[in-house]
What does this fold into?
Amino acid sequence: MRFKLSSGKEIPVEMHKARMVQKVFLVPAKERAEAMKGAGYNTFLLKTKDIFLDMLTDSGVNAMSDHQMAGFIDTDDAYAGSRTFYEFADAVQDVLGYKYVMNVHQGRAAEHLLAKTFIKNGDVVATNYHFTTTRVHIDLMSGGPACLELYTDDALKTDSQVLFKGNMSPDRLKDTIKKYGKEKMAYVRMEASTNLIGGQPFSMANYKEITKIAKDLGILTVLDGSLICENAYMIKEREKGYENKTVAEIVKELCSLVDIYYMSGRKNTCCRGGCIATNNKELFDRISPWLPAYEGFYTYGGMSQREVGMMAVGMREMTDPEVAGCSVEQVRYFVGRLKDEGIPVVTPPGALGCHIDARKFAPHIPKEGYIAGAVTAALYIASGIRAMERGTVSMERNPDGSEAYADVELTRIAVPRRVYTMSQLEYAVDRVAWLHKNRELIGGLTWKEEPPVLRFFVGKLDPINDWGTKLAAAFKKDFGDKI
Ligand code: F0G
It folds into this structure.
C-alpha cells in the first residue's frame, strides 16, 4: 500500500510481516568478479551462495502467505481424483470465472500444449509481444518464425509517459489477418503486463477491441495471465472508468473476454505450477488428451498436490490489492529513486521489476558486445545483486544464423513479491548509481559456449578483456575489501 508521509512523499508500506526468514550473504567484490567469470558472465549460472539479493526473476521465488503454508500441509495426495485438485478448480471458477481447468507443471508447459493443439505447419500467432518460451513453442510447431508481434509505436520507447505500452495495434492486427488469411491465424495472444518490454500493461479498451476483431472472424483468443493481477491493478490505477472497480472484478472481466486462459503459477499465485482454463468444453477436450502424455493425469498435471493446494490458496489471495500491488508499488518506488539518480530506466514503471535501458546506461558498448549482458554482469560484480539480461542474449538467432539484435537491451532487476525490504531496495539504488558513475569500466562480451536454443539459460560468454577484474578493483578502492 502507498502511504503519504507528513513531508508529502509517498512510499510503499508492506501490509505483511515476516515470520520466517532466510539468511543471505554478501561476498567481497574480488570474489564476485571470480564467481562471474566462473559463471561465463551469465547470471543464470551463478550459485546462490555467491548472491546477496537474488533479483533474477519474480518467478517461483515469492514469499508465500501463512494460509498458503497451511494449504501445503492440508493436501490430499492422490494420483487421481484428489480433493485438493477440486478445491483448486473451485478457486479458478470463483476467481477467474472458468468452468474447466487443468494443471500443468509451469507456464511454458501450457504454451507447449496450446501450440501442439492449435498450431499447424505454416500457421502464425499474433501477439502484443513475445515471451522467450512462448516464441520457441510457437515457432517449433509452425516450422519457422511464426510469432508476430503487433505492438504499437510506443511499446519500445523506454523513456515514456504512455500508460499502456502493452497494447496491440488494432490496425496491424487487421493488416496481418488480411495478409495471412484467418485460416492461418492459429490464435491471437495477449500477454498481461508484457514481460519483455518492461512489465507494461495493456488497457481494457485495447484488449476489448483486439479480442472483438479476432472473435468476429472466428479466430481463437488466448490470454497469458501469468501477470494478470498486476495488469488489472494498473488498469484500475490508470484507465478511466475502472477507478472504482476492484482488482478482482477487473481480473474476472479480462478472463471473460477470451476463449482460453493460461498462466504460470510461479508469479501471481506465489507457488510453482500453472494451469490452462476455459469455458469452452470443446476446446478443453481438444487440449486435455495431450495432458497425460506430457504433464500427468488431469487432477495433478505435473504438479505435486502440495503445490496444487498452495496454488488454490494463492489463486484466492492474488486479487487482494495488497498482493496484486505489492510489486507494482515497490517497482514504482525503485524506478523513481533510480530516476532521481539519473539512471536510464523504463518508464512508466510497470510490473515484475525495474528495467535499466542498457543502451543508454553504457552507450560506449557496441551492440556486438551484448550490452545488456555486460551491464547485468557488471551489476553483480558491483553489488552482489543478481539481475537478468533481457536483450540480445535472450533472443534466438535468425534462421540463417545471423544475430537477431533485440528491440530493447534491458537489465531487469526483478522485485519478487513480499521478499525484499525498502532498505534492500535503497542498497540496490546506490550500487546501480555507483556502477553508472563507473560505467566506462564496463566492456563488451563475446560468446564462448552458445547453445542452439534458449541460449541465455546456460550459454557462456567471455569479457572482451579483463574489465570485470578492473571493475572489482575500482569498487574495492571506494568501499574497502570487506564488501
Ligand atoms: N509467460 C510469461 C508472461 C512469463 O513471464 C513467463 C515466465 C512464462 C509465460 C513462462 O512461465 O516460467 O512458469 O514456465 N517468466 C519468468 C520470468 C521465467 O523470469 O520472467 P514458466
Notes: The domain at 66-320 is CATH 3.40.640.10 (Aspartate Aminotransferase; domain 2). The two ends are 33 Å apart (CA to CA).
